[in-house]
């Protein structure tokens, strides 16, 4: 982590002795008492900071040294302000009297001193006092004079309000709203810092200040904004910039104090009565006659409109182009806040937002701006009676399809979905159709966005999307590999030889396989049927099994499958659940060959197969044909051991009249014969080449299932008893080819003898192997007809008697 030199310094700082430390304090005090604070003082302060920060526990400085550090907060040299603030943050909070002295002297406050006050505030009362001090300092600030600049106040005030919004009072809201109006709308339009239009021979008296300019180089023709440039800036221009940076948070915060004055706020706010004439007349009144909050909304609207107009200009620098994009995002978000607060502003705002969308929608480099526009359409499109379909096709369609590798857009789009789920279900329910598109973000960078999908996935599971979503989640590693191939096909030349390239990339470019990859890259659900050539696709993508991005994607699929099944049981009917069981059986053998991936998916399938059958036992009878077909395939014992074991268990457990009255003796006999044939086959021969012996759990589960079925149809008992007898005889003759471990063989034979003994008493066997529900969930302690409750009450009285 650190270089050897750095580790040595940190070790020295931690091991410094107390005597040496006191000498260092004394030497530093002498340096701080000098009139000129030079390099030696600066170096000593750096050493002190290393000593304080390298230790686990805070050190207490001598009081006189702490006083000197507090006085350095008002030093004219900013490097001493920074160092003193950093040092004081590493020490226990200063006394209340010392902090109050700094706080009360508003002229000595600066960014670092105010930041120290915020970090060392011991209660909300301290934050309230600091908030009031800063606001009244801003209110009493004269337009000119020798007083210290207060440009630091707004950033610090913003931090205070984030920590303690209740620090605001109605008086504070009025003061700051008025000041925001002045800073936003009436900042000077000439450059600061001594910029002038004079030539070489021009004297100081004849120099005239230059006006600020636009980003395209032309002279600003309107009021100052953050997009105006110059060689220097005046203090009110800096306050304009700080005000715009804080404006959105301010609009969202000052409502916390409106609850106590709801009548006044109702009077300030324009009513929406459905009459366009009344809205226009309300907005055309003189802004200076409006209450402070409404006047701030009006000036905010003008400021943001001016910003949007400025963003039409072609910037001369690339960095300014990025600044324009950031300002557009902020301007649209602020206008959204204004319209949420005052719905009458929607009709004035929407034309410019709609025009902005039309201008930017063809350029995906403005995706973050378009996403903020989508938020505006979602919140106000219904009121403005506009069609939002084109917005959703762009945001949910083109963005994930073409910008899946943009991590910032992925984060913001998924956050947009999470924060607006309720609104999207109500106003844009078609967003669920774009599920395959959203999953491209997960397939490309699974570790970064998996938390978002853990929150999103339950909302995307519906009866209409459940089956396709299950297939899509299982194919997520294939989608990850396909996105990599799509990305590489653009960057690598087509003429590159296959010997140096990737075989899967050649397949991706091959028209014969294009349909397979296009299905994975589909934008909406229902745009095609489930792939019927999955094995071909898996063969084409075989070399992608060890790509890091694909492996990481495969690791998150089991987590999402658990969430999926936990959700689907709450929304699906029995017919859909039956279909999902078939999908699980089908897909258990159609997975991309990634190490451990198949095993993890089989474990998830097994867990939720049991849960579905326990929830709806009749599913086993309804889907008995498919389940028996799966259980009757001997190859599944070796390739799908986990799933196979659980399928056999549910057949033995729930194939009975008690689970479904339509279950017949013929069905039970058919199931018995199928399982008997498989059990006989695997216990009479060695496993196929390239496979290992079946696990003892598979064999004992088959034996238990046969015993359960025989207990329900007594004609089958002799057949299963004969098998158990042959099994015991074969085990006595020595080792067998189908079981490599002697202890496992003993356990299997012991289990067979136990089941054989039970079947000698058929009535007892059925009660033991398939106990009725009242036995599985006893209520003896609650049933008043039994003697147990009476005995418990007597024992309770005896043990609690005095």
Automatic annotation (TrEMBL):
Residues 452-798 form the AP-5 complex subunit zeta-1 C-terminal TPR domain. Residues 1-282 form the AP-5 complex subunit zeta-1 N-terminal TPR domain. InterPro entries: AP5Z1, AP5Z1_ARM, TPR_AP5Z1_C, TPR_AP5Z1_N. It comes from the Eukaryota. One of its GO terms (cellular component) is AP-5 adaptor complex. Residues 323-440 form the AP-5 complex subunit zeta-1 ARM repeats domain. This is Adaptor related protein complex 5 subunit zeta 1.
């Amino acid at each position: 982590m650190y270089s050897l030199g750095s580790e040595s310094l940190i070790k020295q700082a931690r091991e410094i002795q107390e005597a040496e430390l006191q000498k260092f304090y004394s030497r530093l005090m002498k340096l701080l008492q000098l009139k000129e604070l030079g390099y030696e003082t600066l170096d000593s302060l750096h050493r002190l900071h290393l000593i304080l920060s390298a230790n686990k526990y805070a050190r207490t400085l001598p009081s006189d040294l702490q006083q000197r550090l507090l006085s350095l907060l008002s030093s004219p040299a900013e490097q001493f302000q920074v160092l003193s603030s950093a040092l004081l943050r590493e020490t226990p909070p200063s006394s209340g009297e010392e902090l109050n002295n700094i706080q009360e002297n508003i002229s000595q406050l600066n960014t670092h001193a105010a930041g120290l006050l915020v970090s060392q505030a011991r209660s909300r009362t301290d934050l309230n006092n600091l908030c009031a001090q800063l606001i009244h300092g801003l209110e009493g600030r004269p337009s000119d004079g020798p007083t210290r600049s207060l440009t630091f106040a707004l950033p610090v005030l913003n931090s205070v309000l984030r920590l303690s919004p209740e620090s605001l009072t109605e008086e504070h809201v009025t003061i700051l709203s008025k000041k925001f109006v002045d800073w936003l709308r009436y900042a000077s339009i000439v450059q600061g810092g001594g910029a002038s239009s004079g030539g070489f021979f021009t004297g100081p008296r004849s120099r005239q200040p230059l006006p600020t300019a636009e980003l395209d180089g032309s002279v600003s023709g309107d009021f100052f904004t953050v997009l105006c440039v110059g060689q220097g800036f005046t203090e009110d221009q800096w306050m304009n910039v700080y005000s715009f940076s804080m404006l959105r948070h301010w609009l969202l915060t000052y409502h916390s104090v409106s609850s106590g004055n709801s009548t006044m706020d109702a009077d300030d706010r324009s009513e929406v009565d459905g009459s366009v004439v009344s809205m226009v007349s309300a907005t055309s009144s003189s802004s200076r006659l409006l209450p402070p909050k409404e006047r701030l909304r009006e000036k905010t609207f003008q400021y943001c409109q001016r910003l949007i107009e400025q963003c039409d200009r072609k910037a001369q620098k690339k960095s300014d182009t990025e600044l324009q994009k950031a300002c557009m995002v902020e301007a649209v978000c602020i206008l959204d806040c204004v319209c949420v607060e005052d719905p009458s502003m929607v009709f004035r705002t929407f034309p410019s937002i709609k025009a902005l969308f039309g201008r930017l929608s063809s350029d995906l480099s403005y995706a973050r701006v378009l996403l903020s526009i989508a938020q505006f359409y979602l919140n106000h499109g219904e009121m403005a009676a506009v069609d939002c379909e084109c917005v959703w096709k762009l945001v949910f369609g083109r963005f994930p399809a073409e910008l899946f590798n943009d991590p910032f857009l992925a984060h913001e789009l998924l956050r947009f979905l999470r924060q607006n789920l309720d609104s999207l279900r109500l106003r844009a329910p078609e967003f669920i159709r774009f599920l395959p598109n959203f999953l491209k973000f997960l397939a490309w960078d699974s570790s970064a966005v998996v938390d978002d999908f853990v929150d999103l996935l339950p909302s995307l599971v519906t009866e209409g999307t459940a089956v396709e979503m299950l297939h899509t989640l299982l194919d997520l590693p294939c989608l990850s590999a396909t996105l990599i191939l799509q990305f590489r096909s653009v960057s690598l030349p087509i003429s590159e030889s296959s010997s140096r390239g990737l075989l899967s990339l050649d397949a991706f470019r091959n028209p014969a396989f294009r349909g397979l990859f296009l299905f994975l890259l589909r934008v909406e659900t229902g745009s095609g049927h489930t792939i019927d050539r999955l094995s071909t696709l898996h063969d084409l993508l075989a070399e992608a099994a060890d790509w890091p991005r694909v492996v990481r994607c495969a690791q998150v699929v089991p987590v999402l499958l658990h969430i999926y099944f936990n959700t689907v049981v709450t929304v699906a009917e029995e017919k859909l659940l039956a279909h999902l069981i078939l999908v699980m059986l089908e897909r258990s053998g159609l997975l991309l060959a990634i190490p451990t991936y198949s095993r993890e998916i089989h474990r998830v399938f097994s867990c939720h197969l049991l849960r579905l059958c326990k929830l709806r036992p009749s599913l086993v009878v309804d889907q008995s044909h498919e389940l028996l077909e799966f259980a009757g395939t001997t190859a599944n014992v070796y390739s799908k051991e986990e799933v196979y074991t659980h399928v056999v268990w549910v057949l033995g457990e729930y194939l009975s009249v008690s689970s479904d009255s339509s279950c017949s003796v013929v069905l039970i006999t058919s199931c018995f014969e199928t399982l008997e044939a498989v059990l006989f086959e695997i216990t009479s021969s060695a496993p196929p080449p390239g496979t290992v012996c079946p696990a003892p759990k598979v064999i004992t589960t088959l034996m238990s299932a046969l015993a359960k079925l025989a207990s329900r149809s007594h004609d089958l008992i002799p057949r299963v008893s004969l098998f158990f007898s042959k099994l015991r005889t074969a085990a006595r003759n020595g080792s067998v080819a189908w079981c490599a471990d002697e202890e496992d063989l003993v356990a299997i034979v012991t289990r067979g003898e136990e089941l054989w003994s039970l079947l000698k008493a058929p009535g007892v066997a059925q009660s033991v192997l398939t106990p009725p529900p009242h036995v599985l969930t006893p209520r003896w302690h609650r049933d008043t007809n039994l003697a147990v409750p009476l005995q418990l009450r007597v024992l309770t009285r005896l043990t609690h008697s005095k």
